[in-house]
Amino acid sequence: MLANSSRAFVRLFPTEVPKTSTGFRRVANTFITIPASLVLCRQFPSFYVHDGLALRSYATTTSEAEPRVRKPRTTRKTATTGSEPKAKNPAASRKTVAKRVPGEKTVSRKAKPAAKRKAKPKAKPKAKPKKTIKRAVTDEQKAKAATKKEAQHIRVLKHTALLKPKELPGSAFSVLLAEMGKANHSIQGKEASAKYKDFTPAELEHYNHIANQNKAANLVAYKKWVESYTPQQIKDANNARNLLNRRFKSSLSKTLFQIKDDRQVKGPVTAYLYFNTERNLSGDLKHMSIKDKAALVSSEWKGLTADEKKKYLDQQAADMSRYRLEQKTVYG
User: Fold this and answer.
1) 155, HSE (Cβ side, Cα atoms, 13 Å)
2) How many CB atoms lie within 10 A of CB 206?
3) How far is Cα 31 from Cα 38, in angstroms, rounded to an integer?
């Protein structure tokens, strides 16, 4: 080992050593750490000291040599008998090729593409049902609901009642009032009434003739309007008119009369009605009031025996069978 522990760190370059002073051709370009006073040691047999510098030589020639010229390597070309080069992959060359039989068709099997699995959609969480809170209905709300229901029922009845179309004026005065109203919309009934009173016989005859023509036209139009509906619709309309008359008996400006239709089925006649008709046609009840007639006929009916009532009861049964048959044929 060395007594002196001081070391020198030296970076060597090829230009630091004169080629004439030493016999070295090349010096390594590297960092070397050796003792500064070491000339030759067993631990560093390949290091030498020159002017205080530690050097490592790669050549030991004593004379300056020319740089070596490297010859290019010659590659050996192997002669190939076939036109195609050999397969580089040795595993590919090991694959055995099936021999083709003459006259047999070769079927190329194409690899099927792997089916992509569709991702299942995530199930949405179910919404919790909202709790319905029932609130108590007040008396005012009940009254409003009842009024609304009644108004809706009345609208349905009015629609079912089949309001008839407007008619032409059927009297001489109404014809005059309509004629004066067309000329002057501000005309009043008093003026028309005064003019009507001053009519001459010729003028009155003229307006009566127009009124009679209007009546005939109204009858034709009314019959045509009635026949435009079925017998069942006319029956429902008459029932609706009865209900409206009862509901608005005091408020209706005009009473809704029954629609006259010859196709309607007449109701059955009772035995008492047959007896009442017979007593009125006999002439025994002339010059009597309706009230007295009704009281007398009622007392006579109660005094009849079963054999005397049988005639009227048979008439009632026959008319009832007629009514049922017409109900089926007319209304279905």
Assistant:
1) 6
2) 14
3) 17
Q: For residue 81, give the amino acid letter.
A: T
Q: Is 27 helix (H, G, I), strand (E, B) or coil?
A: strand
Length of the chain: 332
pTM of the predicted model, to two decimals? 0.51
Q: Which residue in the block uniquely carries the two structure tokens 């229901």?
A: 149
124, exposed or middle or buried, with CB in 10 Å at 0-12, 13-18, 19+?
exposed
Return d(Cα 204, Cα 69) in angstroms, integer: 154
Query: pLDDT tens digit string along 23-62?
Result: 444 444 444 444 544 444 444 444 444 444 444 544 444 4
Helical pair 172-183 and 201-227, crossing angle rounded to 10 deg: 90
**CA 216-221-225 angle, 5° bins:** 150
Alpha-carbon span 145 to 44, nearest angstrom: 120
Angle, helix 231-247 to helix 139-160, in steps of 10 degrees: 140
Give yes or no for a contact between 172 and 207, defined as CB atoms under 8 angstroms apart: yes
Do residues 192 and 177 lie in contact, with contact meaning Cβ atoms separated by under 8 Å?
yes
Distance CA 151, CA 248 (A): 13
What would the pLDDT profile of 233-246 be if each residue is shown by its tens digit? 999 999 999 999 88
For residue 154, give every residue at least 6 positions away whose Cβ sits within 8 Å of its Cβ, in sequence order, or none. 244, 247
Which ranges of 163-247 would DSSP assign to H, the alpha helix?
Answer: 172-183, 189-197, 201-227, 231-247
CA dihedral 248, 252, 257, 259 (to 10 degrees): -80
The Cα–Cα gap between 246 and 257 comes to 12
pLDDT at residue 67 tops 50:
yes
